[in-house]
Automatic annotation (TrEMBL):
Main location: membrane
Protein name from the UniProt record: Exporter of the RND superfamily
Entry annotated with the keyword Disulfide bond: no
InterPro entries named among the record's database cross-references: MMPL_dom, Mycobact_MmpL, SSD
Gene3D superfamilies assigned to the protein according to its UniProt record, in alphabetical order: Multidrug efflux transporter AcrB transmembrane domain
Membrane topology: Multi-pass membrane protein
Amino acid sequence: MLDKFVNGIETYLFRHRAFVIFLFILTTFFLGLQASNLKMDAAFVKNIPLNHSYMKTYLKHQKQFGGANSIMVAVEDTSGNIFNANFFDSLKNVHDQLFFIPGVDRAQVKSLFSPSTRFTEVVEDGFAGGPVIPADFTTTEQGLSIVRGNIEKAGIVGRLIAEDYSAAMVSAQLMDFDPQTGEALDTLAFAEQLEQELRAQYETDEIKIHIIGFAKMAGDVAEGAKGVLLFFLIAILVTAVMVYFFSKSIVLTILPLLCSLTAVIWQLGLLTVVGFGLDPMSILIPFLVFAIGVSHSVQMINAVKRRVTDGQSTKAAAALAFRSLLIPGGVALLSDTIGFMTLLAIDIGIIRELAISASLGVAVIILTNLVLLPLVISYTQVQPQKNTAPVKENNIWVKLSKFATPKYAVWVLLITAGLYAVGLQQANQMKIGDLQGGAPALHLDSRYNQDTFFITDKFSITTDVMTIIVEAFPEACTYHSVLTQIDEFEWQVSNTAGIESTASLASVAKRVNAGFNEGNPKWQVLPRNTASLVQAVGRVPTTSGLLNSDCSVMPVYLFLKDHKAETIEVVIDKVNQLQQQMNNDQLTFKLASGPVGVMAATNEAVAEAQLPMMLYVYGAVFVLCLISFRSLRATIAVILPLYVVSTLAQALMTQLNIGLAVSTLPVIALGVGIGVDYGIYILSTMAVRLRDGMPVQQAYYEALVERGSAVIFTGLTLAIGVSTWFFSALKFQMDMGILLTFMFLVNMLGAIIILPAITAVFWRQPK
């Protein structure tokens, strides 16, 4: 039935070759035009699991207390002392420039020059105070002396002023849209504005500008992603050389490359058609599409060459190659496609876009490389090889075929079991989340991470802040019992490893109360008298971010030393423990807002998605292989090596200190999806011989003669292509390059060593 269907398709396509190729050309032209409109897209909301409970809390209170999409600009005086006219002029210019950049929430811009940056002091008549920068401020020695005194009274050292007075901070929250256009904020354009309008304009030998925040990080990642084009060109060149070495034909080198590039054009065009942009984190997918296309093309030209050498015409050879490879190639590519689509189950926008991008790309390869390529080849004249089975190659296949004998199979499977046991032990130690400080997508010596380390070193607060939202009832802050409970929560959580400092309405109210009592430390407590408590709380404005307008929501800010997975996990565990003890009908401590709250939600979403993703990927591959081979043991023989390699890849991540994060989670699925191709091509050839009663070793030998060189060549070509990523400016690309190189090579070895050993056990010959 299936054979008749394939024969019918082959007959129709090859009878209407010119028309079908013309349709391909028209489609490529149309999608090429669409691809030219593709834009880079790096929206903040795509990087967070919006349906996670933490993110529901985050979104609910984002407008009132700010979100995680913030920018911090540290203005440094290289002399180590900010109290000079040049520095304050520069700080004022940076504040004003940032204030007027479209997309900045102007009400949330904070620096020394913000009207809300005020000091309070205790005087004989009670309290006195005002803005830290007086309205009549001049950069004279007297004016600077007054500001210095105000800074110390305001208690902003470590927050807006570096602890050693070498720098000052300007921070801002970003909106989700551009108020000038009403459209979603263009994060990459905003990052470019920060670079041009702040750093380029105000950085001098005396003044250094340090900028961190999601938008700036996304801009730096996008800038580094431009180097992907160079790696893509290198990959094309390397692949061209390898394909020519394999085919010994310029025509059979150019055509596979053109068909694979056509698949990339179709993929990019289809992304525009469905309304997506290209995120910097998924910019590597077009290369993988190209590489997968080439791998299937090699199988096609290998099949054509062998049939031409057997005496067939090029057209007949192309038709027979199409007929023999459509099912195994189609099953392999469908496995890839469905495997990538399983990533849609992960509730993070950037991974879903990657899944759609990869699925579209791999799906079109079925048309461009399994249909278009043989049709185009049929118009060429492929020369037969003089010697298709040299003695040296045959000797290699004879030696490899021994893996399909019981004697060698036992040792292969024992060694595989040992490697799996060691790999599983290491894989179980794999960490979830980021394992380095700064932005994990960038190298530690990148400008962004150097800026991060400067700010972390000089200030007591950074973007590594987690906000616990305390929800109560209107006017709750006037009740001693409520603030006492918040104070107790803050004190307990502040003694948790990884937390540098904390802030809340309760702790500020205690300091204010002491101020009302001549600054005596003994009075740094929460008043039990309602009137005194109202007096203390009333001095804290809603612009401080410590309470909302009716005092029913009072955040507790936790400033962490870093955002490493271990640190976040310890803090989350402590907060969960305190929640169980303190939450009641009137007072609820909710996780979590702030940048680290987003990271915590993302880490949990990744951890929850890991097992389902693997089950979906392997489930899809299992079903398709079962349909294709109509044999449970054949399906197991294909999947088992993939599972072992996946486990070893996770062990490698542990050894290389690569955490399972948004950028690395899809790698295992990609590796499995692409790795299954090797086993399907080998076993589809073996299965025919085995059904005819041929011994396992002989069936494997003939499979190697027919497709072994193409499988080995494909594994090497893919591995060499992605190995160039080791030199990328982006750390996440380097990590993906290491993991994919490992998976491409080891999956290929699994197909030619472990798979035949399994078949030797499953298809034991009767004695």
